[in-house]
Amino acid sequence: MVYLYDQYLLKAFQATEKATTKERAMHDEERIVYNTAEDQEWADLLSPARRKIIVGAALTATGLTAGNIVAAGQEVIAPGGSSFKPIVPPPDVGKSPWGYETYKEPTPRPRSVRPGEENGLPKTPRPYTDIKSYHAHFYFDDDTYEKAALVRRWAAERFPVELGNWNLEPRGPHVTPSFYFGFTNDLLPIIVPWLQLNSLGLTILLHPNTDDPRADHLYYTLWVNRSQPVNAYNMPKQASVEKIFPNTRPAVKLET
């Protein structure tokens, strides 16, 4: 009797579960949102199989498929039966002016362009007293000119420097808009950390003034933030040292 009752309960549970599964499937069917005709058209177009055909055709059309490097006039057949003749410029006629043995040339060691190292390493250091003063060059553009104007004003208000004018076009070795100020050696341990903390992200070139302007701009430099090209290779290697004549009137006490 107990066995029959257990069988009855099992069949009743199975029937209920079947009905629940069917009802759940009906609800899932009701929740399906079918594509519109336009959506289905795009789905068919962008299906994986279609994408392979489209990509293959595009690569063939641009001459990037395997075996596409062909001689002028050779016909290439693309998927779908279309064809085209790639335009290949004719080879130049003549001989290389360099000859055909350049690959055999040994690698020469160029002569050093750094001052004092033309014939190898120098025997003794250069005296630091060769530095008579410093220049600080500030580079800016149309996005950063307001920052340049602010740093320029701050510096003029606080330091006795020789402040130059605005250079809105390349000037001398400086290839972008810039301004500069010159200062004496005693201000170096103050101005350098001040610029490091107050550069506002500008690129700043600091160089000494010695009797070698070319080396001053190329090899003896300090940079605040990123560096940038300086076209100083045509500057003289020997010249009189530039003098500094302060022209600002500091009126703001330096923050400490």
Short description:
The protein is of the alpha+beta class and 256 residues long. The protein has helices at residues 2-31, 37-45, 48-61, 145-158, 188-198, 213-218, and strands at residues 76-77, 83-84, 133-139, 162-163, 178-184, 203-209, 222-224.
Map the helices and strands.
Elements: H1 2-31, H2 37-45, H3 48-61, E1 76-77, E2 83-84, E3 133-139, H4 145-158, E4 162-163, E5 178-184, H5 188-198, E6 203-209, H6 213-218, E7 222-224
Antiparallel strand pairs: 1-2, 3-5, 3-6, 4-5, 6-7
* Computed CA radius of gyration, to the nearest angstrom: 39 Å
Largest sheet: 5 strands, antiparallel
Cα-to-Cα separation, first versus last residue: 100 Å
Give helix % range.
Answer: 25-40%
CATH fold descriptor of one domain: Alpha-Beta Plaits
Task: Kindly state the number of beta strands.
Answer: 7
Give a written overview of the molecule.
- With 256 residues, the chain is an alpha+beta fold.
- The protein has a domain at 130-224: 2-Layer Sandwich (Alpha-Beta Plaits).
- 33% of the residues lie in helices and 12% in strands.
- It contains six helices and seven strands.
- It has helices at 2-31, 37-45, 48-61, 145-158, 188-198, 213-218, and strands at residues 76-77, 83-84, 133-139, 162-163, 178-184, 203-209, 222-224.
- The strands form two sheets. A five-stranded antiparallel sheet has the order 4-5-3-6-7.
- The radius of gyration is 39 Å and the shape is extended.
- The N and C termini lie far apart (100 Å).
Keywords:
256 residues, alpha+beta, Alpha-Beta Plaits, five-stranded antiparallel beta sheet, two-stranded antiparallel sheet, 6 helices, 12% strand
